[in-house]
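FAQ

Q: What does a record look like?
A: Structure on top, sequence underneath. For example:
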């Protein structure tokens, strides 16, 4: 299977954290808060997701420069499960494109 693609709108829920890897790759990490109304079984349903986002590389570093807490964005990318030091797995959205909406 090859398909792993996500596009989601939301607001930056925490101030972005920027870092650089030992290899010199720029990283920006932030939490995205998504709220919408979706249709499921022919009924309206409130959908809420709180998603960790990682944006890596020079191109995405430029796209994230104006991000701040509360910024409305559309993030396109792929999902990866990452196991933390505590042994718990969490889903991470690895961004391939970020569009600032406001």
């Amino acid at each position: 299977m090859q398909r792993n693609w996500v596009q989601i709108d939301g607001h930056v829920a925490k101030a972005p954290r920027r870092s650089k890897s030992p290899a010199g790759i720029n990283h920006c990490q932030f939490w995205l808060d998504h709220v919408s109304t979706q249709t499921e079984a022919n009924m309206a349903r409130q959908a809420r997701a709180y998603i960790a986002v990682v944006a890596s590389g020079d191109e995405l570093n430029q796209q994230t420069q104006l991000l701040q807490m509360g910024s409305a964005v559309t993030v396109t990318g792929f999902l990866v499960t990452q196991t933390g030091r505590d042994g718990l797995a969490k889903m991470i959205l690895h961004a391939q494109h970020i569009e600032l909406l406001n």
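Q: Is there anything notable about this one?
A: The chain has a mean pLDDT of 94.
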